[in-house]
Amino acid sequence: EQYLMGESIAAVLTDFGPPDFKSRLRQHLAQARSMAATPRKTCRRCISGGLGRKEIRGVGLVFESYCDCPLGEVAKAYDAAKVADGGKANAEWLWHVSGVPVVLYDATLDTTPHQDIAALMRFPKSMDLVAGESWPDALREWRRGWFLRGAYGVGKTGLAVGYAREWLLAGMGRVRFRTVPNLLADIRATFNHDTGQRQEEDVVRDYSEVPLLVLDDLGSERITEANAAWVQDVFLRIIGERHDGLKTTVFTSNSSLESMEDRITPRLAHRIAEMCGPGHMKHVQGPNLRGRLAKE
């Protein structure tokens, strides 16, 4: 049973990550399968994940090393392959669960036609610093929010996704991508549910606490007289928490921030401006890239 658990976990993991990583992990899995074919006593040390456990007086239950059962071998093999891969496999896993649309999976800052903006959104490296600039200051500036506005199809979302990929590859933490209408739909879906289901506060907390949140199509949400107060309250709770916690947020919109003040309230527009700063408020201009791709 423990071996099958490890096998199922590993089967999922091998669907993600670069080919070299998958090849190494499959090799270790073959060894684990061979070990599993050998009858052995029931493992009493192993828990889910293949880590051994022991009791330490005054400390309690702690986990150490890897178990010698097949599940432990799988866990050890996966971690070894992940380290050898330089963390790229973990970034790929986080990318697949980020919510980025499949059509944009391969988008990077190298593929956008807006290289002037992409140059600012790339992860800062020491050799790229200007005279007198420290790397911590450059990183702090890079982690500020971004507000990308422009007409439909000019490449705003591609820039946002490219920045999100830079974020993951730099090991900065989880990413969540969501269009604003779908974010509101996620919260509405919690209404009238039993207490055992995810509640509104759970969803709001998820969006408030994720290290990087990409909010696509701000201003496209449907606001009526009946729901205006609720929509504005949701925005203030999520964006307000992110503002106060210095969480990085990337916004894309067809409209300027000033033109949306009546829609999202001047207070929220001011917070977004503070999060991004004037250097990260970009007007993305150009032809409709979606129309061009459709013709091709």
Low-confidence stretches: 1-17, 38-42, 52-64
Strands, total number: 7
Radius of gyration: 23 Å
Walk across the major sheet and give the strand order: 4-5-6-3-7
Percent helix, as a range, is 40-55%
Shape: globular
> How far apart lie the N and C ends?
52 Å
**How are helices and strands ordered from N to C?**
HHEEHHHHEHEHHEHEHHEH
Overall mean pLDDT: 77
What characterizes the major β-sheet? 5 strands, parallel
Structural class: alpha/beta
Oligomer: single chain
Number of helices: 13
- Note the beta-strand portion: 5-15%
What does this structure look like?
The chain is α/β, with parallel strands linked by helices. 48% of the residues lie in helices and 11% in strands. It is built from 13 helices and seven strands. It is globular. It starts with a helix and ends with a helix. Residues 1-17, 38-42 and 52-64 have low confidence and may be disordered.
